[in-house]
Amino acid sequence: MRAITRPRSLAAAAVLTAGTMLLAGCGGGGGDDASAGGTSPGEGKAECEGLTSFGDLSGKSVSVYTSIIAPEDKAQKESYKLFEDCTGASIKYEGSSEFEAQLNVRVQGGNAPDIAYIPQPGLLKTLVQDTGQVVEAPSGVGENVDKFWGEDWKAYGTVDDKFYAAPLGANVKSFVWYSPKMFKENGWKVPTTWDDMMTLSEDMAAKGIKPWCAGIESGDATGWVTTDWLEDAMLREVGPDVYDQWVNHEIPFDDPQVESALQLVGSILKDDKMVNGGIGDVKSIATTAFQEAGLPILKGECGLHRQASFYAAQWPEGTKVTEDGDVFAFYLPTTSEEFGQPVLGGGEFVAAFADRPEVQAFQTYLSTDTWANEKAKATPGGGWVSANKGLDIANLKSPIDKLSAETFQDPDAVFRFDGSDQMPGAVGADSFWKQMTAWITGQDDATTLGNIEKSWPSS
């Protein structure tokens, strides 16, 4: 995951030119009329270098459907202005909190958007296989993903050996939140190994501070937080190859290797000495909203909270989220050096349901480092990052966003997408959540994993 070091303008121009040349009839879903032609409205403008290859798209529009809603939608729309100004096309943005439920309905009903930002590879696979309406990505988009992301990310947008969707935004889930002030006052150092982290936890407990606080309540999605815990443990205990086998059901869900990883999670979440700081006992984890679970850190009632980078938005207004501030985060340490530095995360993927020139042009724009940097600059308040290796970290304003980008770009990082988001819906968005909730409230390891295994669809 090493960063691209070429100047952004040159890299963008080269990639955009290659991508748009490929739009002219060579894209995966493109037809004979895939090239817009004409003179681009951005011709002669320095800021439009590379974008002029899309031709004249004046009067054309592209509809975008997404789960990204206010206030986060503002920065998304701002990041499209360069494309609109340089091509003449307009982007019609629609965000919805009902996205996952409504997208399939719209596609099946013949009312599909031109482009959708899909946050689960499993949902993308379902749409491709069940509807036949998702259009393969243009070849230029594939080349951009090869250049700026790599094989792991490209695989998440690939179904049945055909590439459909490039990554967009991303988040790091392998983070532990803490109070730099509390650490300084107690002489604690950020742990770099799992053993160091457990020693730190025991030190906290000895001083009368419950080391960890946690909460998994999330309405119909209650339990997803514990699935993230198990996924991170799998990456650290058995490595990315076995993790992939588990996610793809090439080994059973209740394989001994999975049970070992669950025991590792249980050494924290099911130990009364370790949890649940400022909230209650172990069972209180099941009824504590995930949005509120880390807040006891601000009161000194717990020391550590494992949660994704997007948790930065949950701290109360005025909280200083910096390395020397009220709260910050560190990388969840590994249990050994055998598997490098595994990073669990999530993100969105750009899927198209049309192959008109303006749609393919916008797809290509979103797959470049140009867009990633435009989006970073359009998000001055922070709360967004991409795994695009052409993203200039200096364009990110939030320290936690910069830490996330550095984590993605670390050459030793081994990224894997959220496992439950890749599993069949009957497992990843149902039994996995429910059984892990039952586990927190007292169900044993073997029963928990066995019940999830039984729920896996037979075909």
Automatic annotation (TrEMBL):
Which positions carry the signal peptide feature in this UniProt record?
A: 1-24
Against Gene3D superfamilies, the record matches this protein to: Periplasmic binding protein-like II (3.40.190.10)
Q: Which PROSITE patterns match?
A: PROKAR_LIPOPROTEIN
Alphabetical list of Pfam families matching this protein? SBP_bac_8
Which InterPro entries does the UniProt record give? Bact_solute-bd_prot1 (IPR050490), SBP (IPR006059)
Lineage at the top is: Bacteria, Bacillati, Actinomycetota, Actinomycetes, Propionibacteriales
- Key word Ubl conjugation present in the record? no
Tell me which PANTHER family the record gives: ARABINOSE-BINDING PROTEIN-RELATED, OSMOPROTECTIVE COMPOUNDS-BINDING PROTEIN GGTB
Which protein family is it in? Belongs to the bacterial solute-binding protein 1 family.
| Keyword tags | Signal, Transport
Q: What is this protein called?
A: Carbohydrate ABC transporter substrate-binding protein, CUT1 family
